[in-house]
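Our platform keeps sequence and structure together, in a single record for each protein. Such a record has a labelled line for the sequence and another for the backbone structure tokens. Nothing more is needed to write down the fold, since each code stands for a local backbone conformation. For reference, a complete record is included directly beneath this paragraph:
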Amino acid sequence: MHYEFAKLHGAGNDFVMIDDMNDQITFTPEQIAHICDRHFGVGADGVIVVKPSPRPECAAYMDYYNADGTKAQMCGNGVRCFAKFLVDRGIVDAAAGSFVADTLSGPKPMKFKLGEDGLVTCATVDMGEPELRAAKIPARLTETDTPFGPAVVEQPVRLGSMALDVTCVSMGNPHAVTFVDDPMKVDVDVIGPQVEEHIVFPEKTNVEFASVHGDTIVMRVWERGVGETLACGTGCCATAVAAHITGRAARQVHVKVLGGVIDIDWRQDNHVYMTGPAEQSFTGSFDL
């Protein structure tokens, strides 16, 4: 079949986006992996199929897949690109300034800003409440009592002869955050997959390596089912939450990732708000 697509990215985290508002497209995991292959396919960290939502309050459903073909509950950078795709193509009224996106982890209210050309430049997403309880993340690690409730805070995960202390947060998908002196010196390609597939994470996990410098967090991320990416929106949210509950940072931070900067605000209503860019790289078509 012949498919039209758009390639978008949020701080370098890139996606192949396909309009399926007629709800007729189904991809196999192997087809998703082929589309995302950077040598033989289009190349991307994931695929987003734009589908109609059964929820009347939602503009559309973000059907998101990791580069290995697995379905993921949520993608923070992807949902901002989703907003740009919908608004720039008139599926959502640009004058509205906001809408609700439907995702596998539930509805996500969004606000967006337009550039001088009338196209979306950035978006703010209500990512909902972070989940700190071990069983809900899920993580087979010990909880401790914190002012934020029971949480998995700096618990050791053994990797051969070494142990990595992780703070775990779910933003609709699982994250294990470890604080290091310098994320740029971490061998992410080696440590990342070991933590992702560790037995203590029954659904695997995303892995963040972070250091805190005042109101700025420097972070690298190993994404579950993808590998190291230039940015991860849910990872930025999870890392900001982990930094606050471990006493390293305030509730409002700038998260500096390899692809840019994403702003996180964990407000008193317990919702995490993420603001960041969304850009279109190019459009094209492929046969599959």
